[in-house]
């Protein structure tokens, strides 16, 4: 049977027409999908600009469903989940990104950094630590190290904190010598509490060498020497500190007075304290002076025949001429006699209660107040954020 070529001639145009129609249908479908994705994206962006995060998330989810290969939408969606506090959903988004085989190296590092932030915000410090360690050698390395440093300091893992701080110091982007000295002081405090005073002294010597201008290593060293019974050594350490860190004197004035009395150098210490007090009056320095039997000079308008030989308590009056101090007024009134002595106790109690909050220390970073001075704020975890002066003197 002969093949009829006329059918072939008729079939070729028909196949061409059918192929053309199929391609047009595919192109039309692709255009529809491409239109839907940008519309959903811009709709989500509009919701985000109007601070309507719930609607923005819905729009971005729709966009991701229409175009699941767009990683930027995944990043936007994950960040929105994190901002809303939906950390589990944010983790799933970023873990999904990390699981993709077609992700570029830069986007993979970005997803790893976002995942670490999810864990940090969720308070999952162990998982955050593991995620941050994977960022070593990436462009997020410095941010990761700072986050790791904060984790180790919060959990009081001073060995790991010191190692990270050393890496940051070696990067030469900022100086971390004072912070590293704090880590050594914290380790020294732990060793001293455990009874290993020799190791504690060695750590404090390292801290002093690392940050010679920082007051804490010298203060902690002097306290350790007093604990050893080396009052003379403690006095020498604090007397030298008066020259290198005079602004921190209110923190160690009482210890300087105790060391001076124990080493029989009260007169020398009194001259140092009086000179520093004249430069910068402080209630703590004043009381150290008074404990040594001295007093600041009274202003001329307060000098009378009765005050020709000043008493230690006159120091509070002298202090009031420098600063308006409820604490000084309350403590001076506590030793005075009045015509209506029967009212002394309730009045004194009211004054002491009003003055008590003024004796606190306040963090300059977060405002957290405490009755003791902290080198490391328990509220915001900032270092050296507590001024050495009481709230009343700020």
UniProtKB/TrEMBL annotation:
Pfam family, one: Zn_ribbon_LapB
Positions contributing to Fe cation binding: 363, 366, 377, 380
Cytoplasmic side: 24-394
UniProt key word Transmembrane: yes
Domain of life per record: Bacteria
Keywords, in A-Z order: Cell inner membrane, Cell membrane, Iron, Membrane, Metal-binding, Repeat, TPR repeat, Transmembrane, Transmembrane helix
Topology term for the membrane: Single-pass membrane protein
InterPro entries: LapB, Rubredoxin_2, TPR-like_helical_dom_sf
Primary location recorded for the protein, binned into one broad class: membrane
Record's subcellular location: Cell inner membrane
Domain LapB rubredoxin metal binding span(s) in chain numbering: 361-385
General function of this protein: Modulates cellular lipopolysaccharide (LPS) levels by regulating LpxC, which is involved in lipid A biosynthesis. May act by modulating the proteolytic activity of FtsH towards LpxC. May also coordinate assembly of proteins involved in LPS synthesis at the plasma membrane.
Membership in a protein family: Belongs to the LapB family.
Name this polypeptide is given: Lipopolysaccharide assembly protein B
Annotated organism of origin: Variovorax defluvii
